[in-house]
Amino acid sequence: MRILVVDDEKGLAETVRRGLTNEGFVVDVMYDGVSGLWASTENSYDVILLDLMLPLKNGYDVLKELREHKVWTPVLMLTAKDGEYDQTDAFDLGADDYLTKPFSFPVLVARIRALIRRGAPERPVVLTAGTLTLDPLNRKVRRGNTAIRLTPREYGLLEYLIRRHDQIVTKAEILDNVWDPAFEGGDNVVEVYVGYLRRKIDVPFGVQSLTTVWGMGYMLSADPGPREDSPRIAGT
After folding, report:
1. Which helix (H) or strand (E) holds 166?
2. How far is C-alpha 131 from the chain's CA centre?
3. Are residues 189 and 92 in the same domain?
4. 207: domain CATH number?
5. Within the chain, what is the greatest distance between any pair of CA atoms?
6. pLDDT, tens only, 216-236
7. Bridge-partner residues for 47, per DSSP?
8. Cα distance between residue 219 and residue 167, in whole Å
9. How far apart are CA 73 and CA 2, in angstroms?
10. Is residue 9 assigned to a domain?
11. CA 178 to chain centroid
């Protein structure tokens, strides 16, 4: 198994390299974003460990360009920054996991092995659910030909729901996959953001694609029906 480490902290990078080598991995190390991007596109890796704050090109830009070049190698972000929006931005750009420095080496190895088991399946350029489309590369959402502007949190919620369209998802699943793991608020925040999302993706178009399944959770339908309060045309 071949791993690429992109981190400008040379001492840490060398420690990670030695540790992973002892675990049986083949490890390449790059110390800046430009070199990391080059290595990522020129070679085949099972996992990329990518620092967020890098010289020449930061980790956000490296990740964005990788996904734009349709390089779907699993990326584990390594960073000293632990803000909620830092993690959200990384996941929105296509990161697969996130680990804050300082970290436990056994945890790092466990995360890497989990990503390897998951693999790097081809990711669709555009996600669809009926007339609703979401472009993960450009972070654009449309209903038919109409563009829809979402906040980062609304976008993250919609991306999770559209990947699970026609399936019931619980509040707990949404919190685990859309909110920061350290979030300590109540699960009613999910209801609030589902409401925000409905008002943008459904209400203006007279459809009801995002529904509440009482006692279970929420479901985004690929073929939305008309809203119950929308005007009906005679004879239909």
Report:
1. none
2. 22
3. no
4. 1.10.10.10
5. 74
6. 999 999 866 555 544 333 222
7. 3
8. 6
9. 11
10. yes
11. 9
Question: Residue 222 has what pLDDT?
Answer: 82
Output the CA angle 197-202-205, nearest 5 degrees: 145
What one-character-per-residue DSSP string does 17-85 give?
Answer: HHHHHHTT-EEEEE-SHHHHHHHHHHS--SEEEEESS-SSS-HHHHHHHHHHTT----EEEEES---HH
* CATH number, domain with residue 34: 3.40.50.2300
Each residue's pLDDT tens digit, 173-209: 888 777 765 567 778 899 999 999 999 999 999 999 9
Nearest to 155 by CA among 172, 136, 173: 136
* 223/209 Cα distance (integer angstroms): 7
Instruction: Provide the whole-model pTM.
Output: 0.54
For strands 127-129 and 132-135, give the pairing: antiparallel
Q: Which residues contact 31 (CB under 8 A, 6 or more apart)?
A: 6, 7, 8, 10, 13, 55
Locus of tokens 């209903």: 143
The domain in which residue 108 lies consists of 2-118
Query: Distances in Å between the alpha carbon of 175 and those of 150, 163, 212?
Result: 18, 15, 16
List the chain residues with pLDDT less than 50.
Answer: 84-85, 229-236
- What residues contact 101, with CB distance under 8 A and at least 6 apart? 12, 78, 79, 80
Give dist(CA 179, CA 183) in Å, integer: 7
24 with 114, same domain? yes
Question: What is the reported pLDDT for 236?
Answer: 27
- Least Cα distance to 210 among 190, 187, 185 occurs for 190
